[in-house]
Every structure is written in structure tokens, then in C-alpha cells.
Design goal:
Oligomer: single chain
Number of strands: 16
CATH class of the largest domain: Alpha Beta
Helix content: 10-25%
Largest sheet: 7 strands, mixed
Number of helices: 6
Number of domains: 2
Order of helices and strands: HEEHEEEEEEEHEEEHHHEEEE
Distance between the termini: 112 Å
CATH topology of the largest domain: Copper Amine Oxidase, Chain A, domain 1
Length: 261
């Protein structure tokens, strides 16, 4: 009799485990992923890897550059570089579209979590997103930050973009053009003033002074001829900020002074 009861109990437990897809310890995957990305303040997750850890069916359509994720009764359809997605054929908007990086499709963590009835929590200290759906939980860590000092190559690129921002009239897509190099607040500033006020084309770089691991500044100066005998001194102060895992220009202040003989 005891053997019969034990056998029936084990049979019932096995049935519950197999029949309930929300129980995560039966999953063959680790619940930790370490190649998330930070893009414009959003945590992006590798879509296929995360989907599979939540026992979802993933289908890629090469012709349409779209990806379908099915979990239970919910179907999420995303297209690369499109700000419109479909959840059970109902359209909704994305702040950041799905994108491909080195063959991997990335989407915002919150979009995936909320589409399947879950939550996404972000830890700035750990640079980690925690997605919870039912009883399952997956941890996605952002890729390690790059060395925090600005490379000379990056300084040169940012300096070129500062010089370009003297006059914005030739740019039809100002935000798209400068977003990889300037912070959003600085882009707003130059759009409002139609360029960097009092700016000059300066090519000589100076030493970078760091006030923290995420803030730095540089002072540039140069003399220009102003009339037959006068000179004009241009002082440019550049403020950098480490955001989105890279250094960007956060502000530029330019002063001019006429030097008389």
C-alpha cells in the first residue's frame, strides 16, 4: 500500500513539473546573460537568448527582417529598425526599435517583459536588468564598460563634430547626425541657438582634465587675425560626459577677445 501511495505521489509531481512551463528549474539554460547593451539610456537585451530562456518559440524571417516570439497565448512580432511592433496583431509603438548588432537582434528589456506580462527592473550599480515573467527570472548584464579615459581617437572625432556644429544649416537631420557624439541636452542647446555660439574652427587639442570617471573638460585657445593689426583670442571650453558607454560632448562655451597692439 505504501509503495502504491509513493508511486502515485511521484507520478503527480512529475506531471505538474512537465505540464507547467512557468517552472524554470527544468530549463536547460542558465538564467544569466552577459551581453546586454546600453543605448541612449535604454537597456537592450539579446532577443533570442532571452526568449529561449523563457521557453518561447522564436522565428526569424530573413526576407522581412522580422522576428516572431510566441509564449503561451501571446505573439510578439518585431521588425528591425521599426518603431512599430505587434502584440497578438495589435500595434504599439517602441521608443527604441529592434536592431541588429554582430548578427544578434536587440530590443529594450521592458518591451519584451511587458509584452509577456512580466516586469523589468534595472540596477544601475550592477548594470543589470532583471526580467521576471511568472515564476521565471532571467538576469541580463550589460557588456563591460570601456576604459573610462577618453582615447585620442575619440577626442579627435568629437573635436571635428564640435567644429561642424558651428553652422547647422546644412544638416536636415541634426539629432541623428550628432547623437553618437553629443548628449541630448547639448543637441537641444545647439538646435535652439542654431549652432555653437561664437564658435571657431579649432584643431589644436589640449590636455583633458577629469573631475570624475564620467566627467571631463578641455580648454582650447587660438589667435586669429582681426583686421589689419588686431588679433582675436578665442577660448573654447569643452565639457565631456560618459553616457551610453561612451564619451560625448555635454557642453561647449566659447569666448572671444580682441587683442590690440
Amino acid at each position: 500500500m505504501k509503495k502504491t501511495i509513493i508511486a502515485l505521489t511521484l507520478s503527480l509531481v512529475c506531471t505538474l513539473l512537465i505540464g507547467n512551463p512557468a517552472i524554470s528549474f527544468a530549463n536547460n539554460f542558465s538564467n544569466t546573460i552577459d551581453n546586454g547593451k546600453i543605448d541612449n539610456g535604454r537597456m537592450l537585451i539579446p532577443l533570442r537568448a532571452v526568449s529561449e530562456r523563457f521557453n518561447s518559440e522564436v522565428t526569424w524571417n530573413q526576407a522581412k527582417k522580422s522576428i516572431m516570439i510566441i509564449r503561451g497565448k501571446r505573439e510578439l512580432l518585431l521588425r528591425v529598425n521599426s518603431r512599430t511592433a505587434l502584440l497578438n496583431n495589435a500595434a504599439f509603438s517602441l521608443d527604441v526599435p529592434a536592431k541588429i548588432d554582430n548578427g544578434t537582434t536587440y530590443v529594450p528589456a521592458r518591451v519584451f517583459a511587458e509584452a509577456f506580462g512580466g516586469t523589468a527592473l534595472w540596477s544601475e550599480q550592477e548594470r543589470k536588468a532583471t526580467i521576471t515573467i511568472g515564476l521565471q527570472q532571467v538576469l541580463i548584464y550589460a557588456e563591460p564598460q570601456k576604459p573610462w579615459r577618453i582615447s585620442q581617437e575619440r577626442i579627435n572625432v568629437l573635436n571635428e563634430k564640435i567644429n561642424e556644429a558651428t553652422d547647422l544649416s546644412s544638416y536636415s537631420q541634426i539629432r541623428a547626425h550628432f547623437r553618437p557624439y553629443f548628449t541630448d541636452s547639448f543637441i537641444n542647446k545647439i538646435i535652439h541657438s542654431n549652432g555653437i555660439k561664437n564658435n571657431a574652427i579649432l584643431t589644436r587639442k589640449a590636455d583633458i582634465a577629469y573631475s570624475s570617471t564620467t566627467a571631463a573638460r578641455m580648454h582650447q585657445s587660438a589667435y586669429f587675425e582681426n583686421g589689419p593689426i588686431n588679433l582675436e583670442l578665442v577660448d573654447r571650453y569643452v565639457f565631456y560626459k560618459f553616457v551610453d558607454n561612451q564619451w560625448k560632448v555635454d557642453d561647449v562655451n566659447v569666448g572671444r577677445q580682441i587683442i590690440e597692439p
